[in-house]
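Section 3.1 - Work completed
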Amino acid sequence: QMGNHDMRIPIAHAMAFPERLESGAKALNIFDVKRMDFEEPNLQRFPCLRLAYKAINAGGTMPTVLNAANEIAVEAFLNREIKFTDIPVIIEKAMDSIPVFSADNLEVILEHDGKARETAKHIIAELNN
């Protein structure tokens, strides 16, 4: 699946799934692209990608923890409370401090989401002290 860089595409897909909804995004013309280069991602340069792989490999509630900690960290960055480079630090500390459980029901997922958000807030407070 290839398309233009436009968030309207995945948002429209998510809103209408399994049906398709017209997103309003311009269709990709592959001839305009002319060339595509693929290379292995640099996980040191992109630490959040490394953390995503870590969450996937851990499974269970860990992707929930990553997502919740990320949302809190990004919000803190946008509010100028932390540096951009603190985002992966906060996420990883939250992931390391919350054990993985089986994500077999909504209550467990919501519980871990809440734990991760509170943990991320504590980590941010520690960074700011």
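Second construct:
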Amino acid sequence: MRVLTFNLRFANPLDGANQWDYRKELVVETIFACEPDLLGTQEGTVPQLEYLTHHLHGFVPLISHREVDPTCQYPTIFYRQEFQVEESGEFWLSETPEVHRSKSWDSAFPRMVTYGLFQEAGRDLWFYFLDTHLDHISAQARFQGARLIQQFCLKKNLPLILAGDFNEPPDAEVYQELTRPELGLVDSWRVLNAPEDNPPTQHDFAGQPRGHRIDWILISAPFRVTKAEVIGYNHQGQYPSDHFPYVAEVDY
């Protein structure tokens, strides 16, 4: 099973030649090239997500539970239509997680988690797949958001896959919180790579890496990582986003 996390970069008219209308076809092409079974996107605005829904043939967006708001950037799950879904939902990373667009702890924007309970076709295992995007400004908001995610996962007591843009490097507070032993999550990248090997997952739309490895896929048992790759897919130097997609292949 292949899991992909991909920060789409929101539809910003200030991006000039890299604004959404000039790269949306390449985004779809990139996703298909990665061959995911489960996809977690971040920063998608409603028109962007509608475009993906219409063009990612064979995939279903996990949005039936959602209060669609055109002012939001949503982390959104897409899944191959062969998967079964028993439960789905989302919550805001705030002191009032049930309140739409709520934010706390000096978060620059409302942030949220979306999740589903999935079963792959022909398999018995049910597992949760969660997708999130933590705040890019407030360290306290990132940490408290990670705490909310941890509390949610501990209550579920089922296998987990957590993907997203965490806006912190590995070994920082959020990473430590989400990889605490009692939660059972491990970093899919580090399962196969040395701790000092941390390729940045952001770039400047020209493929020049900057910053840190902030896009992660964390997994619990019984999932076993067989491949992990930061994807540099581009078309003649044009990149689909200012983040590199990251894919992890897992077996179980």
